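Here is one chain, start to finish.
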Amino acid sequence: MTLRGADMTLRGADTTLGATLARAAACLLLVAATAACGSSGDRAAAPTTAAPPATTTAPTATTTAAAVPTSTGATTAIVTAAPTTSTTAVPTTVTLPTPIMPPPEHQAEPELILGRISIPRLDLDLEMFSGITLPTLDKGPGHWPGTAMPGTPGNVVVAGHRVSSTRPFRHIDELVEGDQVTFTVDGVESRYVVTGHEIVTPDAIRIIEQTPAKTATLFACHPPGSTEFRWVVHLVAAD
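Its structure:
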């Protein structure tokens, strides 16, 4: 029984070894065939390696399309506008009128009607004369010769009586800011607006000084019936 059992054991071992050798031979044949054709891992890697260039190219095309926002897809040329040259305006010089010095108060002046002066607040609409001496002012409001003409740059200066003759400026002290005064010369109306007033002495010749802007000055003796002071009204062109 011992020898028979040993023989059976050896036979089982031979059978097992043969099967193992057979499986090993089959594996060697499979490896050899795979090496000749390339492994399954190599076949998968080939398309993976080729794919990145295609993936990289696609974003580039998309970026280029976004940079040219045209509806037709055509390339748009970038045009640079020619630089413009700015021109600095050359300031113009305005020559201001030159008023005459005050003449003797009783001196006769040639009668010259320049136009009309209208002051709604004072219910006044009268002829305006050229001159400022007493004989001229006895006729009506007088324009100081050499001062600006209405509607032109400078200071239009007009004087008038308060108590004698036609006394056109009797209530000059009632003019307030915003009141209008209209001068009409050669059929052209020039409107001015009151901006304020002041009281000065008779020697305050500064009230006739000319200005680059269109301004006007009305004045008369103050208080009424006295020559101690002058009531002065300042205006500026309304247009």
